């Protein structure tokens, strides 16, 4: 007699084999997918671990450059505003920037396989990484002898001529950085000592500007055997002509110079000069900051309560060297802006004249930091 359960058992076994076959097939596809994922992820992780430095140069160089430039402008504007309020001037320089990067990556792959019947295949793929950006910035406050040398020492006349040689307009440079030239006095906007200048000064610097436009003015520094430097200002002649430039005789008469001379020795001094000597009474960077402080638009309430210097009445109606706007809200689009107290102060982005004057001031501070100041007298008392 045939066992009635035999066909049923054979059918069940066939079903088990079919299920096992499908399970093995699914596990094989899973292994293929795991291997493909490993092939895709591994190169990405390894390439990230290969090198981090070169990719950061383009980004960091320009980012730090922009950050230092913006902070320089804001610090300078803040000190200008402080002077208008009778506050102290403080400079904090960025002495050094050291940026360090660390990237660590780990890739882990595990696989396990059991018997094909009643077992399973499994795989684990994991990746992790750590990125650390640790910049070290060193600040150096300007104090002591450095403060006195950088801020209170008058600018060397050669530095002023170098600025002119670099393309700065002679009239703008001289009106901001000179107190006098051969005894002809410049106007000053500084709070507490504002006064109008001599007409001869304005006309003289305008004539020098005309010569600069035509390319007929130059300078050089002569060094003798004792290593003493002498700055020489030269005036050329128009190409193709045997006569001196127009205005040369007028400039000589205004400054008491020798007519027809092509070169003049430039020195620091408050004397009348004359002959072949040009004496320039230069200002210190702190004095120039005071000139710019007069251009700050102070809220009327601060003038009335005595917390800020009023606009000099002696120069009413004249154009200040730079315009600094003010308001209770921060500007939307400014060249540079700072907050002092409860008010905002800024230079407008579209004010080219103010931006040019501000850039000149930055150039002056760069000269004072890197250049060697000339030996200057402390006090000059004219004899009558």
Shape annotation:
elongated
- By DSSP, the count of extended strands is 11
Side-by-side strand order of the widest sheet: 4-3-8-7-6-5
Biggest sheet overview:
6 strands, mixed
What is the radius of gyration computed over CA atoms, rounded to a whole number of angstroms?
38 Å
Segments where pLDDT lies below 50 for 5+ residues? Answer: 7-22, 370-384
Q: What is the end-to-end distance?
A: 152 Å
Mean pLDDT: 76
Number of helical stretches of at least 4 residues: 10
Structural class: alpha+beta
Write the H/E string, N to C.
Answer: HHEEHHHEEHEEHEEHHEEEH
Strand content: 15-25%
Write up this protein.
By secondary structure, the protein is α+β, with helices and mostly antiparallel strands. The chain is 41% helix and 24% strand. It is built from 10 helices and 11 strands. The protein has helices spanning 6-50, 53-84, 144-152, 157-165, 170-177, 199-213, 248-255, 285-293, 300-304, 352-370, and strands at residues 92-113, 121-141, 178-181, 184-185, 217-223, 229-235, 263-268, 277-282, 325-327, 334-340, 343-348. It has a 6-stranded mixed beta sheet. A hairpin with a 2-residue loop joins strand 10 and strand 11 (343-348). Helix 5 (170-177) runs antiparallel to helix 6 (199-213). The longest helix has 45 residues, at 6-50. 22% of the residues are buried.
């Amino acid at each position: 007699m045939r066992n009635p359960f035999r066909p049923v058992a054979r059918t069940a076994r066939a079903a088990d084999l079919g299920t096992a076959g499908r399970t093995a097939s699914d596990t094989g596809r899973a292994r293929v997918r795991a291997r493909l994922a490993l092939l895709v992820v591994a190169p990405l992780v390894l390439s990230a671990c290969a090198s981090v430095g070169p990719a950061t140069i383009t980004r960091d160089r320009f980012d730090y450059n922009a950050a230092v430039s913006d902070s320089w402008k804001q610090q300078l504007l803040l000190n200008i505003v402080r002077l208008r309020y009778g506050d102290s001037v403080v400079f904090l320089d960025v002495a050094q920037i050291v940026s360090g990067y660390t990237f660590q990556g780990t890739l882990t792959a595990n696989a396990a396989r059991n018997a094909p019947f009643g077992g399973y295949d499994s795989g684990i793929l994991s990746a992790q990484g750590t990125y650390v950006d640790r910049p070290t910035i060193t600040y150096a406050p300007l104090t002591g002898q450095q403060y006195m040398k950088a801020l209170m020492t008058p600018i060397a006349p050669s530095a002023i001529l170098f600025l002119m040689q670099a393309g700065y307009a002679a009239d703008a440079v001289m009106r901001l950085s000179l107190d006098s030239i051969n005894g002809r006095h410049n106007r000053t906007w500084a709070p507490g000592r504002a006064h109008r200048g001599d007409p001869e000064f304005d006309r003289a610097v305008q004539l020098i500007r005309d010569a600069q436009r035509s390319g007929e003015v130059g300078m050089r520094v002569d060094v003798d055997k004792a290593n003493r430097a002498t700055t020489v200002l030269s005036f050329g002649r128009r190409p193709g002509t045997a006569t001196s430039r127009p205005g040369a005789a007028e400039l000589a008469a205004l400054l008491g110079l020798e007519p027809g001379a092509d070169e003049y020795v430039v020195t620091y001094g408050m004397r009348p000069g004359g002959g072949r000597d040009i004496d320039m009474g230069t200002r210190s960077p702190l004095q120039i900051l005071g000139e710019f402080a007069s251009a700050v638009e102070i809220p009327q309430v601060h003038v009335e309560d005595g917390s800020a210097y009023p606009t000099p009445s002696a120069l009413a109606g004249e154009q200040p060297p730079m315009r600094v706007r003010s308001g209770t809200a921060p500007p939307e689009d400014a060249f540079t802006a700072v907050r002092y107290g409860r008010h905002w102060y800024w230079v407008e982005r579209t004010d080219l004249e103010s931006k040019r004057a501000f850039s000149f001031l930055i150039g002056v501070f760069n000269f004072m930091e890197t250049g060697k100041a000339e030996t200057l007298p402390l006090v000059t008392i004219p004899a009558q």
